[in-house]
Amino acid sequence: MKLLTSGPRGTQDILPKNSYKWRFIENIMLDQAKKFQFKEIRTPVFEHTELFLRSVGEDTDVVQKEMYTFLDKGNRSITLRPEGTAGAIRAMLEHNLHNESLPVRLSYITSCYRYEKPQSGRWREFSQFGCEMVGSSDPLADAEIISLANSIFKRLNLNNISVEINSIGCPKCRAKYYENLKKYFNDNKEKLCETCLARLEKNPMRIIDCKNPVCTEIAKNAPSILDFICTECKEHFKKVQEYLTSANIDFTVNPKIVRGLDYYTKTVFEFVSTDENSKGLVCGGGGRYDNLIEELSEVSLPALGFGLGIDRILLAMEKQNIVIPEADTCDVYFAPLDEKAKTLAFNLSNILRDSSFIVECDSLNRKLKPQMKYANKINAKFVIVLGEEELQNKKAKVKNMRDSSEHTINLDDNFLKEFFEIYTEIEKNKLLGKF
Ligand code: HAM
């Protein structure tokens, strides 16, 4: 078909045959977050650019290469959010949520935008579910956040997910680490990519995160942060591991996890698929960011959180053949055959909808045969045909489309009650295996 234009590269249309899968995953995420007392927040899709420069960090790939930044008509620099944390924290501070009570626990589902090279599981527009907790510096909070994300994977039946954790320390201990890293990378300077060369002085830890294969190879033998963290950070990391172990949460310590964004301190973690068909797919990540809030405001509060990539989680579920319950199908399809019947069908449809049934009524003035064909196509459970005869006798047939049985129903004040009886009798028989 000739079309003016297609959807932009790196975006996807989530069609009705798939959208229920997203709704299913999102509902589980929000429901699990609710159990941990996280409340949903919704923030704008775009923010002032400086918010991301300050929080995500000027030396990160996200800021340097991937942001959708433009000047609006008022000449302000605006950026489509590349992630959810910065906006949620900005909104929390702007509305003083941290002064109401601590900890603040926020959850969100947001679309994010990164100008990346699209490939399987990597989109330019993608969805993140995230949780942010502000106010606690206790390692128990780190374990709780990891435990929440882990419980989501469990409820989704996504078993082959490995929890990888690390500590990247605080600015105090990182100074010594940076010295050693700089020395190490300086010795391999001529092989580093241009971006990493620029990072060498200011932020050498970013080199460990570089996707360039040569830099990755060099970074393999780089010094480990775990050999440099201070006593306090070491103690914190040890406690996090103890809490996770006490909750029977399997994890691996991976000193190579430094995360792609600059705001992290102490604990960082990633959820990586180990399934044969989606090996290495990073379904989510997060960590502590105790210094971010004071970068953005006059307030200093410890905080932590995680973001899960919904697109990737669905991909991992599909690769593992995890069945997502199908969307509810139509309970009743009304097939009116003339104008008078159409008005009655319209009103009876609303009566059933008010009682939570899913109902569709023909609006294309089709003849009976194509209407029945359509009812089959949409998988309607029952069809009620309304014609001249039905209106005259004030009685109609409720056709069960699964076994073609028919039940007579009165088209009067008893309609809803009788429909309930027919419906429950059939559902009961279905449960008893008679259907
Ligand atoms: P992030 O690791 O940049 O962290 O993103 C979180 C997750 O979003 C990733 O693990 C991945 O599953 C998904 N994701 C990232 N980029 C793409 C893409 N181009 N296409 C599809 N999925 C993608 C953050 O964004 C932090 N805000 C997480 C956080 C919250 N840390 C503390 N609180």
Give an account of the 3D structure.
The protein has 435 residues and is of the alpha+beta class. Helices cover 41% and strands 20% of the residues. The chain is built from 17 helices and 16 strands. The strands form three sheets. The protein has an eight-stranded mixed beta sheet, with helices on both faces. The chain is elongated, with a radius of gyration of 28 Å.
Structure summarized in a few sentences:
This protein is α+β, with helices and mostly antiparallel strands. It contains 17 helices and 16 strands.
Output the keywords.
single chain, 435 residues, alpha+beta, eight-stranded mixed beta sheet, five-stranded mixed beta sheet, elongated, binds histidyl-adenosine monophosphate
How many strands, what sense, and barrel or not for the largest sheet? 8 strands, mixed
Proportion of residues in β-strands: 15-25%
Q: Walk across the major sheet and give the strand order.
A: 1-5-6-11-10-9-7-8
Query: Helical content, roughly?
Result: 40-55%
* Silhouette: elongated
By DSSP, the count of extended strands is: 16
Would you identify the regions where 5 or more consecutive residues have pLDDT less than 50? none
Any ligands, ions or cofactors bound here, and which? histidyl-adenosine monophosphate
Discrete helix count? 17
- The assigned structural class equals alpha+beta
Average pLDDT level: 95
Distance between the termini: 44 Å
